[in-house]
Amino acid sequence: MATVKLTVDGVPVEVEAGSTVLKAAEKAGINIPTLCYLEGIHEVGACRVCVVDVGAKALQAACVAPVAEGMKVLTNTPAVRTARKTTVELILSNHPDNCPSCVRNLNCELQALAESLNIRGNRFEGARNEWTPDVSSHSIVRDPNKCILCRRCVSVCEKVQGVQAIGPINRGFNTVIAPAFGELLADSVCVNCGQCILVCPVGALYEKDGIAKTWAALSDPGKHVVVQTAPAVRVALGETQGGEPGEVVTGQMVAGLRRLGFDGVMDTDFTADLTILEEGTELIERLTKGGVLPMITSCSPGWIKFIEHFYPDLLPNLSTCKSPQQMFGALAKTFYAEKKGIDPASIFSVSIMPCTAKKFECERPEMRDSGYQDVDVVLTTRELGRMMKEAGIVLDKLPEEEYDPPMGLTTGAAVIFGATGGVCEAALRTVYEVVTKEPLKDVNFKFCRGLAGVKEAEVDLKGTKVKVAVSHSLSNARKVLDMVRAGNPNGWAFIEVMCCPGGCIGGGGQPIPTNTAIRQKRIDGTYTADERLAIRKSHENPAITAIYKEFLGQPLGHKSHELLHTKYTPRGRYRIRKEKAAD
Question: Which residues of 517-537 are buried (b: 16+ CB within 10 A; e: fewer)?
């Protein structure tokens, strides 16, 4: 491997040829500030905050400037400091001065950068853009007034998700990041995944708030407020209070939710176990009775909207199972209401999710099989963190408490739903034993794990060989779906697709920052939580056995189909405006 030797502020450093000055400085232990830079995704040197002196006629952007043999890099000269400070002051000159009320206050890269550069005023005053925030989406608010045009969101939407829902329109001072032709997010192909929120350095993109509705319900004596918590929340919520990524805070989270005033604190993992029973049975039926193959998972709502827009011809391949969130919502206002003797009209159902697309999902017209809106409000992990902060709840000072019955007993198979490959692994733990009638010697299907974009394997079910595939992020889903369209040459029978990189642990509602290293820590925490549980197979959950006996009957039975299954509708790629349609 060829290397290059150079100095950064007099510190000798040797790096691989082709490296950038930014990487060389990192190796030398020298921090160069960045703003638009996003490693491996958005490396364009647009914002000029990372400029350094390399002996050229002009200062160079360290994030894209290549190293050279013998190069002498200076990162802290008066000219460099002045250039960086001026750049940030110019950005601030067209940025709102409402930091204390911004959702990203104290967790804003621009705010932190201004502080580090000792900016205490603004020398530049002039015209400011005034845009109307786009609040049309159920999931995401887009506020162009706060946008600094770094284009990180554009790159992640295009390169990581392959959706291209937003991009720059207009020119010069009037440039704005928006859907094509200035359409609203709700009318675009946006899948509501929220990956744009995770990479936005400021508060130009954030989730649609559900906190006010939740507080109102908790304060209403006529409401019985129940809450469900997704698998990925328990390994990320601690981060909202300064904890380590991947720290398992399940018991403390349950205690905190009770202190917030929820009447029933239960677990989405319960319906994740239920999903495995329903989905596993569905897969076995398709394999044995000639159904549409490969069968593809349906528990990721961003992925569902993506296939509706871009691959509607493959909708028959989707499992008919609702997501665990929506299964829980339907059961909360039927099974739970009946069990507790509560009028379902008085039940207010809240879910805590790592996902912004879940906010859209709960508003779908298909999700009212209980006779009511099955899930009333979805809160992200970040929103729950804000509620707990507002209420003065400190997680690490709380005792560990258990979930409430009847939908609080869960398994390790359900917990791993939060990581990419987890649904496939959980399904295999059950399908293997149902088909072979033999216990697994090892429940860990480790080929499902890891951050490779597409993973595949063949599983031997005692003579019946089944090929499976796992993908995460929608750009990887495209690769898989294109192969399915081409005739499924790899012979897959079952495919897991998760919308977000890393799976739900990297969802758009998770704490910021979320990067590859943090995703891996959350994944590790997920499997730690799995190993801690006494039961690690969905079909061995006694609460699941009980609900079939008492209420549902059997997997894929009449009542299960009525409450736990659904179908989806093809969506166009482009909206035809009503006024144009009228012509």
Answer: ebbbbbbebbbebbeeeebbb
In the chain, where the domains are located: 3-92, 129-207, 211-564
Q: Which neighbouring-strand residues pair with 176?
A: 169
Choice among 244, 366, 458, 550 that is catalytic: 366
Q: ∠ at Cα 451 (447, 455), nearest 5°?
A: 45
Query: Cis peptide leading into 406, omega within 30 of 0?
Result: yes
Fold of 3-92: Ubiquitin-like (UB roll) (3.10.20)
Is residue 496 annotated as part of the catalytic site, yes or no?
no
Task: Read off the pTM.
Answer: 0.96
Annotated catalytic residue: which of 183, 361, 383, 496? 361
Q: Is 299 a catalytic residue?
A: yes
pLDDT in tens, the chain (583 residues): 899 999 999 999 999 999 999 999 999 999 999 999 999 999 999 999 999 999 999 999 999 999 999 999 999 999 999 999 999 999 999 999 999 999 999 999 999 999 999 999 889 988 899 999 999 999 999 999 999 999 999 999 999 999 999 999 999 999 999 999 999 999 999 999 999 999 999 999 999 999 999 999 999 999 999 999 999 999 999 999 999 999 999 999 999 999 999 999 999 999 999 999 999 999 999 999 999 999 999 999 999 999 999 999 999 999 999 999 999 999 999 999 999 999 999 999 999 999 999 999 999 999 999 999 999 999 999 999 999 999 999 999 999 999 999 999 999 999 999 999 999 999 999 999 999 999 999 999 999 999 999 999 999 998 889 999 999 999 999 999 999 999 999 999 999 999 999 999 999 999 999 999 999 999 999 999 999 999 999 999 999 999 999 999 999 999 999 999 999 999 987 654 444 444 3
Rounded Cα distance between 164 and 193, Å, is 12
39 catalytic? Reply is no
CATH number of 129-207: 3.30.70.20
Please indicate whether residue 158 is annotated as part of the active site: no
- Of the candidates 183, 282, 308, 496, the residue annotated as catalytic is 282
For this structure, is 183 an active site residue? no
Q: Where are the alpha helices (DSSP H) in 261-380?
A: 268-289, 301-310, 324-332, 335-340, 357-361
Does domain 211-564 fall under CATH 3.40.50.261? My reply is no
Is 366 tagged catalytic? Answer: yes
Q: Is 358 a catalytic residue?
A: yes
